[in-house]
Amino acid sequence: MNELVMNAGLQTLPETTGVVIVSGGSRGLGACIVQDLLDHGYFVCSFSRSSSARIETWQADPALQGRFYFETLDAGHAEAVRSYVRTVRDKFGRIDFLVNNAAIARDGVFALMTDSDFQQLLQINLGGCFLLTREVARQMLVQRKGGIVNISSIVGLSGFSGLAAYSATKAGLFGLTHSLARELGSRNIRVNAIAPGFLETEMSEGLAESQRKQIERRTPLGRLGTPEDVVPVVRFLMSEDSRFITGQIITVDGGATA
Amino acid sequence: MTHTTLVRRKIELTINQILEESGRARQDFQDDQALVRDIGLDSLDLAATVVQLEHELGIDPFREGRTGVQTFSELVRLYEDSLSG
Ligand SMILES: NC(=O)c1ccc[n+]([C@@H]2O[C@H](COP(=O)([O-])OP(=O)(O)OC[C@H]3O[C@@H](n4cnc5c(N)ncnc54)[C@H](OP(=O)(O)O)[C@@H]3O)[C@@H](O)[C@H]2O)c1
């Protein structure tokens, strides 16, 4: 990417937006967050293990030249994550926000899950989030400003049969959120989490029809969520409107856990 | 300027910049001054110092788990040793 274009872009960066990293932006909720932030004038950087048609569209869009940056990499690889964050910092000069969204789901009877299932869930959902958050927090400490939004899940709050290991990784994000909010608050870095209910994405495609019906029945608003239900909350947590909110979990589940 | 004084100078500049950005006065550092007790840095100031020095010098000795640095001169020596391999 042309440095001059980047620098020119940054000078005209509206006060209300900024440079944001969204992990796992190739599809599902992550892609929706990327689209929304691009629509609202943010400079968006993302990565996932593979690209997608949506990523290619953004990369090819002349209107987004210098405003969208993507790499393929695995969130569980420390060196790759470190070098990615360094590249973003060098290109854009700063990192204002981080949205920890990339994750995998593994469902099944806990007693029958494999060592590899456990290892992958821990390495990607928690480990990947630790690595990325550390690298971004380092930059935010120097800037003395920043916002971090962790995408968790209501299953980390109330559990779900068949998702015990996945739920544990999502619950882990709450501990990270509460503690980092305390650790980084004095430097004007806010850390919050969102707990969506079940969403219509590839991740939830494995739900049986009976499970889907049951979720709908137990949701006061009567349906599964969509990524579009969640993205305004991400943007709110990144905005000045939420300037006095940190260390909180915002549940977006149509009332399922009410 | 020798290698030693260059590194020392960079560290002085970095710490002073961090002090200034948070509304504190610049200082002249003495070798035996404790980073926390005498200079008044907290753990996040130290973290910001280390990150800023990584940007400028390309190394972060703390990534390899180095601990136990208490004084200004110990910090300078750690970077000098790491830079000289
Ligand atoms: N869907 C739901 O019902 C639901 C409910 C509550 C919360 N959530 C949470 O919402 C977030 C997004 O979920 P989703 O439904 O959008 O999932 P998704 O459709 O499966 O998308 C996951 C994204 O993360 C990326 N990713 C996965 N593993 C990665 C790795 N090791 N390194 C880099 N990128 C990786 C994927 O790309 P690659 O595979 O190409 O790497 C993809 O871009 C997750 O944190 C999830 O836990 C989802």
Computed CA radius of gyration of chain A, to the nearest angstrom: 18 Å
Number of helices of chain A: 9
CATH superfamily of chain A: NAD(P)-binding Rossmann-like Domain
Q: Tally the beta strands of chain A.
A: 7
> If interface size is counted as residues with C-beta under 8 Å from the partner's C-beta, which chains form the largest one?
A-B, 9 and 9 residues
Determine the N-to-C terminus distance of chain B: 20 Å
Topology:
The complex is a heterodimer of chains A (258) and B (85).
Chain A: H1 3-11, E1 19-23, H2 28-39, E2 43-48, H3 53-60, E3 68-72, H4 78-92, E4 97-100, H5 115-143, E5 146-151, H6 155-158, H7 164-184, E6 189-196, H8 209-218, H9 227-238, E7 249-252
Parallel strand pairs in A: 1-2, 1-4, 2-3, 4-5, 5-6, 6-7
Helix pairs in contact in A: 2-9, 4-5, 5-7
Chain B: H1 3-21, H2 43-57, H3 72-83
The structure holds NADP nicotinamide-adenine-dinucleotide phosphate.
Residues 24, 26-30, 47-50, 74-76, 101-104, 124, 128, 151, 153, 196, 198-199, 201-204 of chain A line the site of NADP nicotinamide-adenine-dinucleotide phosphate (NAP).
Keyphrases for this structure?
heterodimer; A: 258 residues; alpha/beta; Rossmann fold; seven-stranded parallel sheet; 47% helix; 15% strand; B: 85 residues; mainly alpha; Non-ribosomal Peptide Synthetase Peptidyl Carrier Protein, Chain A; binds NADP nicotinamide-adenine-dinucleotide phosphate
